[in-house]
Amino acid sequence: MTSEPLTHEPPANEPLIRIVLADDERMVRTALRAILAAEPDLTVVGEATTGAEAVSVVRETRPDVVLMDVRMPEVDGIRATEQILATLTAAPPRIVVVTTFENDSYVYDALRAGAAGFLLKRAEADTLVQAVRLVARSDTLLFPSAVRALAEEHARASVAPPAWVARLTVREGEVLRLMAAGLTNAEIARRMEVGPATVKTHVAGVLAKTGARDRTQAVIAAYEAGFMNVR
Question: Can you tell me the distance from the alpha carbon of 142 to that of 138, in angstroms, rounded to the nearest whole number?
Answer without folding.
Answer: 9
